[in-house]
Amino acid sequence: MPKGFIHGLDLEDFSCTMGRMPAESLRDLAALPNTHTLHLTDCTPGSFHFSSIAVPFPSLRHISLSHITLSSASLLLQPLNHLPLESIELSFGVDPTREIATEKTYFDFCSKLQLLDELQRPTFKCLKLHDQGPSQRSISFDALRPLYKLSQLECLHLDVPFAFRMDSPKFSAWGAAWPLLKDFQLGGEGLESELAGLVPQDLYRIAEVWPRLESLCVSLDTRTEVESSMKALEEVQEQRSLTSLRIHGLLIGHSGAFNFAVFLFMSFPRLKTFQFESGYLDESEKENLTAIYLASFDRLVERRRK
Fold first, then answer.
1. Phi-psi region of 18 (alpha: psi -120 to 50; beta: other; left: phi over 0)
2. Domain boundaries of the chain, sorted by first residue
């Protein structure tokens, strides 16, 4: 890289994949006044010597770290605790030979993130964690307890092997901890079995905890029969803020599709986007089921008009 080249740049978004950047170039880059988004991939703390720079990335608001360990992420974020960060996204666990995230490493990272937010509490609003490591683990509510102090969160994505239970009083504490939440994602593709028996009614219960919730993505336990969850349908009240719903692991028979559509229609009357994904269905089965959903929603809309 030519000497002094970075000085003439007006970068707003910067990405780096592996390797070490020369110290002089890093200093020049970190001094750019308008860089607000930073993406680092396969970077270790030694790759970026932030600690040697007085005020790195003065305008930084969003940071994304991929193919990294939780321990390395903690070290990389520490020198940035002076910044009014708005969002952090981490994708880790790709290489389990480096580090497998455990209950302790989760708790330690969340504790450091809590300290990071002590100075920036009004601005920090979005956290996304994507654990791509071995799934033979289970992270508990307690591992995330330090995050309870991030009271301004509006977006929380937890794609982690999480021992989640709707009947846990600790879940109710989430509602009190993050009252402004608008976007919530729990689990992801391949993590359905980690969620302890979530049924369609739990979609409503989750949305009920956060009255401002607009977008919800969860993994359902595919062993649960959808039809059996319709028994208490008459007890469900409308949740009027949710507009987007995405479900992983949805395994539902054709006979249950209409009942499920009724549930969604009655529970979330403002729903505009509905996506379902299941590795158990081939493309033709997904197309058939999609057609059934569309027909079901059309029937429901027609009924409401009458």
1. left
2. 1-163
